[in-house]
Model the fold of this input.
Amino acid sequence: MYCTNCGSKVEEDQKFCNTCGHSFESWDELSHPALQKSSSSKRYSPVWIYLIFITTLGLMVWGFYSAINGSNGLEQIGENQLQEIKKNQITKAYYEFSSTKFKEKTSLSAFRKFVDENPSLSEFQSVNFEETQKENNYGVAYGELHILDDVSIPIKYEFIKEDGEWRVLHLELDAPQIVTKSEDPVTNEVISAVKAQLRFIKEGNIKKAYEEYSSADFKDSADLELFNKFVQHYPYFSNYENIDLLTTDHEEGMAKVTAVLYADGSALPLEYTLKNEGGSWKVWSMQILKSPLSQSESTIHDKILHEPIQEFLESIRKGDLKKAYDLTSSKFQKTTTLKSFENFVSRFPIFRDSQETFIQNSLEKNVGQVRVELEDAKFSSTMDYTLIKEQNGWKILGIEILENAVPKPVKEQKIEKFNGEFLNQVVSNQLDNIKAKDLFSAYDEYSSSDFKKATPFENFARFIDQHKVFSENSSIEFKDLNFDNNIASLTSILTAKDGDKAVVEYDLVKEEGAWKILGVKIISHEKVIQEEDKDNVSFQPMQFEKLELGTKLTSEGNVSNPSKHIQTDHSDIFATLYINRAVAGAELQIILEHINSGSVLPPVQSILDKDGDVRLNLKFNAPKDGWPQGEYIIRVHSLPGNEDQLFPFTVIPERD
Done:
């Protein structure tokens, strides 16, 4: 039984609520003759009536204050901070709502960067907190930022009490979700129960997911240990990136929900049955919707899944991107505009001139998955298509590039007679701006958009300052020009005022009718190059020979027992990068990426301090929850530049 005034739990035989003092006796009982005062009873004086009124008013104010600062207080704090962010009052949002611990870990500038990198914090239409919890001085609130009518971003606030006031301890955003909305409040309650249970499972709080969201019948048939084994058997529950609630139905206290969990480029469909117990929806059963396909069924499924993809790719080859876009699902179009889709296709030229080969596919109820290899004369790419059945047929719900533009052995074709004077002029104009100390114009006017994304202005300015062949340039001599996939590579020899020389390779790309610099790479430095030998200059580029990985170091600081298969859960990962023909002052950017989830650690930046063969030691700190199992790559990027070298490895669980 619960108090009708404040919601606190009470026993059935209680007459008053221990929390707010509300009476549970009905007016009918209070009007019974046996309980009434006689007419000759003493009447209350005006003074007593006044005191009773003041006391009652005080209790009402206290109850109102408790309600505001109780379970709803956390919601209000989170919503107030978000509203300040939406008004671009970032400083106020930071100082007025952040805890001391939050400010110790996150500076104002880092908070601004976080807001800039997550535009949903300032562009949301509304915010809704579904659940709050408090224990001692710690609180948590789960909610959603509604971005579009059918798209929301899950948000999690953690709070800590400081000097009697709740303050923000942690703020976390999840991946965008497709929202299943209904005019029926019961349907929305059922969906909220499923999402809450899945959220606690993902966070590792299996006990709470079981105890608070399982029906009595469910608990009778499956104890906590069995439920835990079931959840652990399907990694989708802990690794899902998105949830799609396809159908809902309810009747006479029972409801069904068909959900799809997306993780690692694949999908797990399951069916929930829920039961209404005491006004709350509880899980009555969970069923994985998987069954082996017969050969005849498999042939039919090949046809119904392959045809939409074939039509999609053929439309792109013909240049009809609008038709290709129309072959995507309504949910795809809710989150991806036609312009964004066109930009996506333009980033992968292999879509436009290739032949597809279907590798494998699977079909579970209304969701299908197909792995496709696209191949042209030079490259091949592997990608996964997710399809969903809509009223007008099968539509593409998502495309994941698994392996992009793997080159085939092909001889680069040198263009002997091409007149590249206009390309030379772009490089010369940038150098003129550099020599005139106008670095911003050199960066802004002559760099491509991809160059600017990979290389902030501060890095560009530092690179120029470290190499006097640019900052103190006296001349430039253009050597070779090559073209590959609409990218021009221009090799030149730059000479500084003191005679130092460097062979520099420029990559250029055409943007909106104008050629822009895509990458700048110093191939090698030379103090003196004799005039008669200029035409025979041949330098070897800097080479990343190998990368050794492990979880322990020797006494000399080297990786102990290096391997490409790392057995670890929570240990730090050490790496040693061996570089041949290093160039002093070259800046490297090292990025660690988990391929299965697409998550990326913040890049590690290092500036080489000497020429020749160099060994660079690196350390990657283990995440709070440990390293996810699966495939990883370490991407080594030379700044400025656009060529990456990849070093793959895998993380496997530690042996007992």
About this structure: The longest helix spans residues 46-69. DSSP finds 21 helices and 25 strands in the chain.
